[in-house]
Amino acid sequence: MSVEVMNRYDATVRLRARLGDEDAVIGGIGNTNFDLWAAGPRNLNFYMLGSMGLAVPIALGVALAQPERRVIALEGDGSILMQLGCLSTLAKLAPGNLGTVIMDNGCYQITGSQPTGTAFGTDIEAVANACGLEHSATVATETALDAALDRFWQIAAPWVIVVKIDGEPPRGTTERDPLRIRMRFMDALNLA
């Protein structure tokens, strides 16, 4: 029996197509970040380098500082499992402008595909619900991803979508200049 999954790049392209000119995206480290870059660089994308588990906390800071701006955290399963406490913080602070998309392939793909907890049954959507994030979904097809984004995109509450993905390699590699990435993002946020 095969399990349905999406391709990370294809899912990222679908997400990117929904972004407005003022929407900010914080891309977690690794392949999730690389596919965000490959889907089309934007000044309002922040491409994290070497800071595992911090995409959601950074996105939360941006969302709280700029409540008029929609902010999306784009994270991997390994990174979110490393920082599960951020989900309860999201529920407590409840920023109405923050969504989280978690790409779940059940492994730390970039470091050798060692299995994460989701490979052994950890259910990130159930964890998000238990933390108080009632607007959450797990999807494995383009139709299901589009339906979840349709449901959550305009709500004034934090939401989480877990996207079950395949193990395909990323389509690109993010530029490796942290100062340039930071300054471009800060300029786009009108902070520099």
What's the topology here?
Layout: H1 8-18, E1 24-27, H2 31-38, E2 45-47, H3 55-65, E3 71-76, H4 77-82, H5 85-93, E4 98-104, E5 107-108, E6 114-115, H6 124-130, E7 136-139, H7 142-152, E8 159-164, H8 178-188
Parallel strand pairs: 1-2, 1-3, 3-4, 4-8, 7-8
Antiparallel strand pairs: 5-6
Helix pairs in contact: 1-2, 1-7
Keywords:
two-stranded antiparallel sheet; alpha/beta; 8 helices; globular; Rossmann fold; six-stranded parallel sheet; 192 residues; 8 strands
Model description:
This protein is of the alpha/beta class and 192 residues long. The protein has a single domain (8-188), classed as 3-Layer(aba) Sandwich (Rossmann fold). The chain is built from eight helices and eight strands. It has a six-stranded parallel beta sheet with strand order 2-1-3-4-8-7, sandwiched between helices. Strands 5-6 form a two-stranded antiparallel ribbon. Strand 7 (136-139), helix 7 and strand 8 form a beta-alpha-beta unit. The model has no long low-confidence stretch (mean pLDDT 93).
